[in-house]
Amino acid sequence: MAIEVAPLTPVFAGRMTGIDARRTQTAEEVAAVDAGMARYAVLVLPGQDITDEQQLEFTRNFGPLQDGANSTERRHELRLDPAFADVSNIGKDGRMLARDDRRRMASLGNRLWHSDASFRIVPARYSLLSGRVVVTEGGNTEFADMRAAYDALDRTTRNDIEDMICEHSQIFSREQLGFTEYLPEERARMKPVRHRLVRTHPISGRKSIFLSAHIGGIVGWPMPEARAFIRDLMEHATQPRFVYAHRWTRHDLVIWDNQATMHRVRRYDDLTMVRDLRRTTTKCDGPTAAQDAA
After folding, report:
1. Are 48 and 57 in contact (CB under 8 A)?
2. Helix (H) or strand (E) run with residue 67 in it
3. What are the residues facing 45 on neighbouring strands?
4. From the centroid of its chain, how far is CA 128?
5. Residue 65: beta bridge partners?
6. What CATH number labels 4-283?
7. Per-residue tens of pLDDT for the chain, all 294 residues
């Protein structure tokens, strides 16, 4: 079957057919996915009924794996291999998480606009999310095109942010939701890291804004001013004209480029409906900014 991509919005995101993620990919198929990502930033591959092992093998075509567990997750509680981010409401015992479960509280951060692993020195490149069990009401994943958002900035703002360095940490994003329960070793792992606010894509050459709920400050700025400025940028970058909302169908495999997008999950009834999505992630080539003074 020929590989084809149909646009899902006038700005970005596409539906790719002709790829079977269950089998070993040829060099041409890997190149086609990379080319599709460089153009669309989000690709939806429908009908991918894959196992965890097949998802890991497919993901490795696009770079080294990034540990999927967040800094607030404890290893003995993990339901999946640590290479996966468990984007579900299910515990290791197979039961839905209780309303006050600490893991559920932390996972609510996924409802904020963010870029995966921006709280790490080497942030994420591609994220691949497999819809194993999906819900019929709510639970959409929304994506915002940070390239189009950058292009729409006025010239003065583009000049102002060109060399800005921001500080990212999960503490910053979780505190927006009132989540403050961290062990000392967790706080140590969540020390802020630094990233450039403007990035240039290594394949397409397009510039984008590296925004995320994990941003808590701008180097050299007072915190209130920095957070107000980042909030203004977030409002600009998540206008409907820059957003694609994905309504999940079982066995969808959605791939997005964290170098060019932000995303968030929309609310669903996670106390009565099971939702099991499993994410694998690859790393970028390296840090976006020096860390020595962070």
Report:
1. no
2. none
3. 253
4. 9
5. 282
6. 3.60.130.10
7. 799 999 999 999 999 999 999 999 999 999 999 999 999 999 999 999 999 999 999 999 999 999 875 555 566 678 999 999 999 999 999 999 999 998 898 899 999 999 999 999 999 999 999 999 999 999 999 999 999 999 999 999 999 999 999 999 999 999 999 888 788 888 888 899 999 999 999 999 999 999 999 999 999 999 999 999 999 999 999 999 999 999 999 999 999 999 999 999 999 999 999 999 999 999 999 999 998 654
Q: Which two tokens stand for residue 293?
A: 């003074």
Q: What is the pTM of this model?
A: 0.95
What is Dmax (Cα atoms) for the chain? 56
Round the CA-based radius of gyration of the chain to a whole number and report it: 18
**What's the rounded Cα separation, in Å, for the pair 96 and 219?**
41
Q: Which residue's entry shows tokens 């957003």? A: 243
Q: Which of 265, 263, 235, 229 is nearest to 248 (CA)?
A: 265
Residues 6+ apart with CB under 8 A from 224: none
C-alpha distances (whole Å) from 150 to each of 63, 157, 209, 229 are: 26, 9, 6, 15
Question: In angstroms, rounded to a whole number, what is the distance separating the alpha carbons of residues 254 and 276?
Answer: 14
CB atoms near residue 143 (< 10 Å): 26
User: Which of 243, 237, 269, 275 minimizes the C-alpha distance to 256?
Assistant: 243
